[in-house]
Amino acid sequence: MEVLGISGSPRQGGNTELLLKHALEPFRDKGWTVTEFYLSNRSVAPCDGCDICWETGECVIRDDMDLLYEKFVSCDAIIIGSPVYYRNVSAQLKAVFDRHHALFKNKPLIGKAGGAIVVGRGASGGQSLALTIIYNFILSSGALAVPGQRNGLSVVADKPGDVLKQPERLKQARVLGQNVLKYAELIRLESK
Disulfide check for 162: which of 3, 34, 127, 157 has CB 3.0–4.6 Å away? Predict the structure, then answer.
């Protein structure tokens, strides 16, 4: 079984990546294959709206999104994290969402479990909107939106590493991972 973790942060080693790593720990503990895709060291161009994918089922842009297309098919669960920029997900993650359009006909995420993590600077930094955007992507892809302790994981942090001083948030990231894992295993049992 395989889980795909996507960090939409352009900041390497930042809070989003740290929380995603914690959310993926339960999968490692269970022996799953864990694929981590960090947009801080990958390149995904924005969609150019050519709609060739609508006819062919394949995007004409060649970049690191090709790796994600394969992982969307092979994964059994997905956890997506993003910093909050201007009350939205990062531009890097938005490019991934838009380019996923190439798989619209095949819908490889149908029936898979997915979770969301967002990190914003202030308490009213738009985290709830960014969570909604990620969960909208998950639901629009046919996947199951799995909550953490309450909803997705929403964190207030500013400087890289700030989240390491918030043990409760690190624990909540792990709970989100446990919940996504539980539902992914239930879905797998039901499909047999």
Answer: 157
